[in-house]
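for the recovery benchmark. tokens below, seq after
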């Protein structure tokens, strides 16, 4: 009887140990976004896309390589110090295997040294500043989101290849805006030397009155020969309608607004023929993943298609799971080896993490605003797909 009791006790201990082991085997991912603040819409899209990406990759099981996927979501409120502390908490207290985030470039930049300190992977999505995979980069950082240079090169490709073009830029006065203008200058010098930036206007992130900014840009452009363009680099509510109300056409000035989320681009409808470049638009990519993504998103969201940052969230989920599969687990060094040069599938098609700086190389799209769309989300027509091979993306880190 005593032997039976000892055997039963040992079995209970082993059973408890196995249960703890199974719990420890969960694949834990932190998703940090800015669901409070000016970029709330972007953050919500990222989370939706991330969860749909996990669902697609796992065929709805939410398990991967025999491990249950646990997503721990955190709201950094668009505050860099909070983004930093939340990533520290995710690595140290939540013991996540890797992290994804965040929405704002300031927050992402604050997070980079935390990943290095804890020696764990951070997939940056969707923050854009070049410095993230540039001078502030470290080997634990991979980015699925496009960077300022990719935006700029795609935007440059949307300008005419010949004839004199003068540009005034309007950007937000923080890392995203200033990086974007610098990247645009570099891109134009490379692929559109006929296009010159003649004036830079920076405005606070929360600006709502653009009268003074517009007047300075009008004054800088109105006497320039050739084509005159205001190029806008802006996150959040877009200044296009307010600038357009000031009638830049009086001076033969056009506006190039850049791509954005659908609620913002609906404000482009009164300006058919206006051109720019965009990271993602639901009707442009033609592949099975995007077909599923669009159909399923419409089914779950009253007929509304997936958007700019929904696609980005999906891409981050695909990158994370592809990396774990290729590495055979979540050992950081094995993940880094697996992810450098890794190709992974997304709604935009395949992406590839460049070995030198871990930036995802990806196609972009040159669009024109439609004159008569069939509904509120039928806004853009494709002018050209700008392939990765057509974007001479600089390496900006110090590796």
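predicted aa per position
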């Amino acid at each position: 009887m005593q032997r039976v009791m000892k055997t039963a006790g040992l079995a209970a201990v082993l059973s408890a140990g196995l249960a703890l082991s199974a719990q420890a085997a969960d694949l834990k991912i932190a998703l940090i976004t800015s669901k409070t603040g000016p970029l709330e819409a972007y953050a919500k899209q990222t989370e939706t896309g991330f969860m749909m990406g996990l669902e697609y990759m796992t065929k709805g099981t939410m398990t991967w390589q025999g491990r249950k996927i646990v997503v721990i979501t955190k709201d950094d409120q668009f505050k860099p110090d909070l983004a930093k502390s939340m990533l520290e908490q995710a690595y140290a207290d939540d013991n996540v295997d890797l992290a994804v985030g965040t929405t704002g470039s300031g927050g992402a930049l604050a997070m980079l040294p935390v990943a290095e300190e804890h020696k764990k992977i951070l997939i940056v999505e969707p923050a854009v500043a070049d410095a993230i995979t540039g001078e502030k980069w470290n080997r634990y950082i991979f980015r699925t989101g496009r960077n300022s240079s990719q935006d700029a090169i795609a935007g440059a490709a949307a300008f005419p290849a010949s004839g004199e073009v003068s540009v005034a830029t309007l950007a937000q006065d923080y890392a995203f805006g200033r990086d974007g203008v610098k990247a645009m200058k570099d891109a134009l010098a490379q692929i559109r030397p006929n296009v010159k930036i003649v004036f830079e206007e920076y405005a606070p992130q929360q600006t709502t009155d653009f009268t003074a900014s517009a007047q300075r840009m009008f004054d800088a452009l109105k006497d320039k020969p050739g084509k005159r363009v205001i190029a806008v680099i802006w996150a959040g509510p877009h200044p296009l309608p307010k600038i357009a109300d000031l009638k830049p056409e009086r001076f033969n000035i056009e506006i190039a607004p850049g791509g954005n989320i659908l609620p913002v681009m609906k404000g482009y409808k009164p300006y058919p023929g206006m051109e720019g470049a965009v990271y993602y638009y639901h009707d442009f990519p033609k592949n099975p993943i995007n077909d599923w993504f669009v159909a399923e998103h419409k089914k779950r969201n009253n007929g509304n298609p997936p958007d700019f940052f929904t696609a980005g969230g999906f891409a981050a989920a695909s990158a994370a799971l592809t990396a774990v599969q290729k590495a055979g687990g979540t050992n950081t060094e094995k993940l880094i080896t697996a992810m450098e040069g890794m190709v992974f599938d997304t709604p935009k098609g395949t992406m590839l993490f460049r070995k030198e700086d871990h930036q995802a190389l990806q196609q972009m799209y040159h669009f024109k605003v439609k004159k008569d769309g069939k509904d509120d989300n039928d806004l853009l027509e494709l002018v050209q797909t700008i392939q990765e091979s057509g974007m001479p993306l600089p390496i900006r880190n110090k590796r």
